[in-house]
Amino acid sequence: MSQTLQHSEQHTEQHSDPSFEIAAFYAHQMPLLEEREFEAFAQTFTEDCVFGYEGAWQLRSRVALLEGMRGNIPRYGTSTIRHWFENRRAEPQPDGSIRVTATCLVSVTDENGAVTFEPSCVVTDELVRTEEGLRARSRIIRHDLPDPGRYFARLTAQHG
Question: How many CA atoms lie within 13 A of 112 on its CB side?
Fold first, then answer.
């Protein structure tokens, strides 16, 4: 387990406020993806997780998620990727999980400093408490597009 994750979980245990715990989860999780630490990012999901894009595709399992990241993230080359999660709404569920919905922007900064954005989206996570702390059991991303399948087909055509 990474030092950052250990610190994050120890620090979170000192606070009983669920919004702090949720914020700490995302503050730990998303930089792992941005730093291309795929194995550590995948560890923030449960073994049986579901990760996907509404209207496009879904991956089922941590192993499938890891393979998907290794296959998809290289299309960004040496560009820096940042994820901007805003307007988080957390809703405790009867089974003890927490549904977190957030709007998200993804910025991509190339080696020349030019910044582009991916289509804005809504991310819906189902977080569960495990012995290791919060983990995402499900993440479904809904792009703000009328036809997300067409968007992914275009990406596939551009990046093989």
Answer: 2
Closest CA to 101 of 126, 129, 123, 120: 123
3-state secondary structure (DSSP) of residue 96: coil
pLDDT tops 60 at residue 29: yes
Give the separation between CA 34 and CA 128, rounded to whole angstroms: 23
Global confidence as pTM: 0.84
Structure tokens at 13: 């245990």
Q: Tell me the CB-side half-sphere exposure of residue 50, using CA atoms within 13 A.
A: 11
The band of 86, judged by pLDDT with boundaries at 50, 70 and 90, is very high
**pLDDT above 90 for 31:** yes
**87 φ, ψ (degrees, to nearest 5):** 50, 45
Residue type, 100: V
The enclosing H or E element of 122 equals strand 121-130
Single-letter amino acid, residue 123: V
